[in-house]
Write a structure and sequence with these properties.
four-stranded mixed sheet; 43% strand
C-alpha cells in the first residue's frame, strides 16, 4: 500500500492532528486541471494535497478540494459501523500517553479495551469526525 486518501475541509486542522499523532509531512502541493479531473472522474479540478508518512513509511494523503467542492454523505460523527472506510489504526508504544496528548489536541475518546493479554486498544475521533484506532501490543 502506498497511501490512504482522506478528503477534508480543514486541511490545516487535520494535518496538525496527524502530525501530533506522530506522522511527518512528506510534501504539500496544489494540483489542478482537466488531466487531474479525468484521472479521478470529475470535471475541472483544483485541490491541495498533503502527504504524510508514518515512521515506517505508510502514507496518508489529505486532500482539500477547492473545485469542485467536496460533498459530505452522512453525519460528521458517523458511528464505526457505518458503511465505508471507518478508521485508520496505528501501533503505539504508550496508549495512555497518546490518548492524553491527542485529547489535549481536541480528540474525543470513543472507547478503550484490553484484548486478552496481547493488546490495549482505543478509538478516538479527531477533526472532521475522523476515527483513529490505537493499538499497544503487550508483552
Amino acid at each position: 500500500m502506498d497511501n490512504v486518501l482522506i478528503v477534508v475541509d480543514d486541511l490545516e486542522a487535520v494535518k496538525a492532528f496527524f502530525i501530533e499523532l506522530g506522522l511527518e509531512v512528506e510534501g504539500q502541493n496544489t494540483v489542478e486541471g482537466t488531466a487531474v479531473g479525468s484521472l479521478i472522474g470529475l470535471g475541472d479540478v483544483r485541490a491541495t494535497l498533503a502527504m504524510l508518512r508514518t515512521p515506517d513509511g505508510q502514507g496518508i494523503e489529505l486532500d482539500k478540494f477547492h473545485t469542485p467542492s467536496a460533498v459530505r454523505f452522512g453525519p460528521m460523527d458517523a458511528p464505526v459501523n457505518a458503511l465505508g472506510l471507518r478508521r485508520i489504526m496505528f501501533a503505539v508504544d504508550d496508549i495512555d500517553a497518546v490518548i492524553a496528548r491527542m485529547q489535549a489536541h481536541g480528540a474525543e475518546l470513543i472507547g478503550r479495551m484490553q484484548y486478552e493479554k496481547s493488546y490495549r486498544l482505543a478509538y478516538i475521533r479527531g477533526p472532521e469526525g475522523i476515527i483513529v484506532g490505537l493499538a499497544e501490543q503487550l508483552g
